[in-house]
Amino acid sequence: IVIGVIVVLIIAVILIVLNSKKSTEKNDTASPVTDFASCLAAGNTAVGTYPKTCKTADGSIFTDKISMTDWKEIMDSSSETIFKYPATLPTSYVHTTGDWPPKVQFSDKAFTCNETGTSSIDQTGKTEKHIVNGNTYCVTKMDEGAAGSTYSKYTYAFQKENTVVLLTFSLQFPQCANYDEPTQTDCRTEQSTFNPDGIIDQIAQSLIYVEK
Asked: What pTM was computed for the model?
């Protein structure tokens, strides 16, 4: 009986070691996460609707690509740039404002991102580093309430070739409490999952400088 118990224990130890080795090898050979599809394949969850986003454990964000077929192209003479953008957002409770499409500006400072602020309602807003589809942005968001809505002002700073580019715009978020159910719940769900990172990333990557 003792010998039998010893044999069983030895077999159990061997199986544990083999399973551990297989698990390690599987992790070592796992495909790298480089886009939205591979982010989902790695077991992460998609959230939001326009566009859907997938976030990895290290905080990197990957977005489902939006069709740019119906996007408009604009030449910004003040910044001498050309970029594409959606004329409107296909959302019911998040709206563009008068400063859409985003305004393009440049900074002569080196690209860095000092993460500051604890809330977007602070006087200077909240600044965070976002990595979207492998591209790094320094995002500042400032919220201000007015006439039954919250207006959020965004600034996305990023490196484009040898220049730091700033994209600024505002979005209107109507107060969901002004609606009756079930509209109120629909409003809260859409606003809580809305993230402009994917839209701005595609705008930013479409931006080119006008040749003089």
From this structure: 0.79
